[in-house]
Structure formats: C-alpha cells, structure tokens
Automatic annotation (TrEMBL):
Pfam families: TPH (PF13868)
Keywords: Cell projection, Cilium, Coiled coil, Cytoplasm, Cytoskeleton, Flagellum, Meiosis, Nucleus
Descriptive protein name: Meiosis-specific nuclear structural protein 1
Coiled coil: 18-45, 79-123
GO BP annotations, alphabetical order: cilium organization; meiotic cell cycle
Compartments, record wording: Cytoplasm, Cytoskeleton, Flagellum axoneme; Nucleus
GO CC terms, sorted: motile cilium; nucleus
Similarity comment text for this entry: Belongs to the MNS1 family.
Residue intervals of the Trichohyalin-plectin-homology domain: 2-242
Matching PANTHER family: MEIOSIS-SPECIFIC NUCLEAR STRUCTURAL PROTEIN 1
C-alpha cells in the first residue's frame, strides 16, 4: 500500500471515528437530554406535589383558622347575647322592684290618708256623741234636782213642824204655823230656784258658748273634710270608707269627670251618706 493510500486510509478511519464519536455524542446527548427531561419532569412533579401539599396544608390551616374564628365569633356573640339578656333581665327586675316599691309607697300613703280621714271623721262623730251625752246628762240632772227639791220641801216642812211642835197647837194656830212653814219652805225653794236659774243661765251661756265652739269646730272639721276629699278622693276612688260622702253636696265639689266615674262605681245613698255596693 502506498503512502497516499495509507494517508487516505487513515483519513477515512479518522473521519469514520469522528462520525462514530459524533453519533455517540449525539446518542449520549440525546440520552442526557432524556434523562435531564425525566429528571426535570420528576423534579417538577415533586415541586407540584410539594406545592399541592403546601397548598392543602395552607388550606387546612386557613380552614382551621376560619373555624376557630367562627367559633370564637359565635362564642363572643353568644356571650354578648347572654350578657345582654342577663342585663335586660336585671333591668326588668330592677324596674319591677322599683314599680313594686312605688306601688307599696303609694299604697302606704293611701292607707295613711285613709287612716287620717277616718281619724278626722271619728273625732267628729265622737264630738257629736259627746254633745248628745252632755244633753242627756243635763236632762237627767234636772230630773234629779227636781226630785231633790221635793224631798227638801218635805224634809223642811217636817223639820219646822217638829221644831214648833205643831201637833200640840190648836187647829187655827196649826194652820197658821203650817202656812208660815210653807212660806218659809217656798222662800227657801224660791232661793234655790233663783240660784238654780242663775246656774241655768250660766250653764246656758256656757252651753251657747260651747255650741258656738262646736259649730266652729264642726265648720273647721267640715271644711277640712271637704279639703281632704278634694285633695285625695280622685285617686282614692274605690277605697273610700263608708259614709265619707254625704251626698250631692260633696259630689258638687268635684268636676264632671269625677262625678261620672263615681256614679259608675255602683254606689247607693243611705242615711250615712254615699256607700259603695
């Protein structure tokens, strides 16, 4: 083989080797690219899985956060609702207590006014009863005084007769002495009568003075009674004691609305005044 042929042969072998190297390189490059692509795909898959895992975990965390927040808000809302309800109940209880206290105060004041009115009326009735008792006592005393006067007359006649021993005198002297005794007794009785009349006049003057005082007291009591009626009867309608109203004269102290409400209360008029049925 000549030198040219050898050189060509070497060049050909070199080219063949170069082509095989290039082909091998291309194969290796293709394999590397395949492996790199698979590696990248695997890495991307892992990244996606990790991202998906992270997303799910974040979603779970956020769901738990939302659940805790919702639970917290629910509990806070429930607590606020319970607190508001308890406060409302306390306010209602306080209002009920206050209303009950005011009602008790009003009832106590009403009872106090009723007791005062009953006391005033009872005093007025007692004063009238005392006056009637005084009149009856004076009548009884007059009767007793008349009986005492007659007894005194008989006693003095007997005493004078005994002192002068009339039974030992003759008829004319006895009649004269008895007449003298009667005159003396009548004189004593007249003196007693004059004293009695003076006492009666003094008592009459005292009684007239007492009657004027009673009339003034009665007028004051009546004015006070009417004043109490005008002040309190409107709010005490239905609680007034028996006999507190004397009739239309008392009703005329009030306006038309009160008279209509009073007549609607089913009342009767008796000797003691207007009474509730």
């Amino acid at each position: 083989m000549t030198e040219d042929q050898t050189e060509k042969q070497l060049k050909l072998e070199k080219m063949t080797a170069t082509q095989r190297y290039i082909e091998e390189f291309r194969k290796q490059e293709a394999e590397w690219r395949r492996l790199e692509r698979e590696r990248m795909e695997e890495e991307n898959r892992r990244i996606r899985e990790f991202a998906s895992f992270q997303q799910r975990r974040e979603e779970d965390r956020m769901a738990k956060v939302r659940e805790r927040e919702e639970t917290k808000q629910f509990l806070q809302s429930k607590l606020a609702e319970n607190m508001a309800k308890e406060q409302q109940q306390r306010d209602e209880m306080d209002q009920v207590r206050e209303e009950l206290y005011l009602e008790e105060q009003e009832e106590a004041e009403r009872q106090k006014e009723l007791q005062q009115m009953e006391k005033t009326i009872r005093q007025r009735l007692e004063m009238q009863q005392t006056y009637h008792e005084q009149v009856a006592f004076k009548q009884l005393r007059q009767k007793v005084e008349q009986e005492e006067e007659e007894a005194f007359r008989q006693m003095m006649m007997a005493k004078f007769a005994e002192d002068d021993r009339i039974e030992q005198m003759n008829a004319q002297k006895r009649r004269m002495k008895q007449l003298e005794h009667r005159r003396a007794v009548e004189k004593l009785l007249e003196d007693r009568r004059q004293q009695f009349l003076a006492d009666k006049e003094r008592e009459l003057a005292e009684r007239e003075l007492e009657q004027r005082r009673d009339a003034i007291r009665h007028q004051i009591i009546e004015e006070e009674r009417q004043k109490l009626l005008k002040q309190h009867a409107t709010k005490l309608l239905g609680y007034l004691p028996k006999g507190i109203f004397k009739g239309d004269e008392d009703l005329n102290l009030f306006d038309e609305d009160f008279r209509m409400n009073f007549q609607k209360s089913n009342v009767n008029f008796s000797d003691d005044g207007w009474d509730y049925k």
